[in-house]
Design brief:
binds (2S)-amino(hydroxy)ethanoic acid; alpha/beta; binds manganese (II) ion; 12 helices; nine-stranded mixed β-sheet
Amino acid sequence: MSESRIRIDRIQRDIEELAKFSCVEGIGCTRFTYTKEWCCARDYIMSEMKKSGLKVYEDPVGIIVGVLEGKDSSKPIVMTGSHFDTVKTGGRFDGMAGTVAALEVARVMKEEGFVPDRNIEFVALPEEEGARFGKGLFGSRAMCGKISDDELNIYKDEKGISFAQAMREYGLDPSKVGEAIREPGSIKAFIELHIEQGPILENEKINIGIVESVAGLRIFDVFVHGRSDHAGNTPLTMRADSFLASAKAVCAGTEKALEIGENTVLTCGYIDVKPGAFNIVTNETHFQIDCRSRSLENVDKVLDEVRKSLDASCTQNLGLSYEIKEKISMKEVPMNENIKKLMEREADNAGISTRRMLSGAAHDAMVMGSICDVAMIFVPSREGRSHVPEEWTDYEDIQKGTELLYRTVKSLASK
Ligand code: HGY
Ligand code: MN
Ligand code: MN
């Protein structure tokens, strides 16, 4: 890469400072929205934004916004940033890389005295992961007016605190969520830098991923009801074993996903069995299915297999029944072609190698795509790992991604 004005030392300091508030060596980072760890990170981000000379405020749902005013603030803005909540025991780069990259772009623009044609907003978003309350992409959904009326009371954390109650305890008014909605047409483009969370860039020794599209996904809660029995004396043919039916369904769905290919994946990351004793056949099993693919049609084929398997188990044993409840459903979202091309030109000029790629992970950019042009920059993940304490991205790679982010945002905001 040609000489870069992006400072690695500041990027590293930001990541390390943010990690101090919520990351424990070997255990990972846990920063849930509106918690004290989250407040520490919020304060750091706001103070860094203020130090760099941005106009800073917190919106009605806790989105941190730093504004670099342009010549004509009536024009649709350019926005960049990412989320700063984490999954439970996750890594220090997921979300933070894009939040910090945006911060560094703001600093450099201010240092250069750059005045854009239109306002640029640098944002840090809450509850993208859904790790605390169970329904993610919250900050971007709030800006796009996609928060359903009842969700703030329905979704609760593991202590039973609802989203609404947590907002009130944090100092926000849940009835004002609607005020976070951005006027249609008020945003020209949203650009998000994010870690790849997969192995491709590292394996192919490519600096940057230009995201083609973000995969479609459906996330379900599945409840299987059976009957408890003695583990020793009850013949296998007589059992209504809710866990066994669940396990068969997850395997059937996984086989189908493998058969389809096209980046189709199925994950069962949460399961709860009752009564939960080694010598009692399970009568209740609640599990979650997270299914993603290049297209939702593929996702639906996989989910059909899951249903077929559960139906077959229920037919074989009348003591079994089940319900499936959809939690989240997002269609695949293509990134803006013109911005992808702009990024490729700018990367070329900067001597940064790129390749186009799918994002299997969900991102706020996929929601923002419903109200503006969107594009994403991926930086490599070491060994492709993420959502784990071992998550790592070299600071040199974040610098390259930030250099491209800077050039892209500057170009979009200069006309
Ligand atoms: O689940 C995801 O894809 C993202 O990490 N929230
Ligand atoms: Mn994540
Ligand atoms: Mn993320």
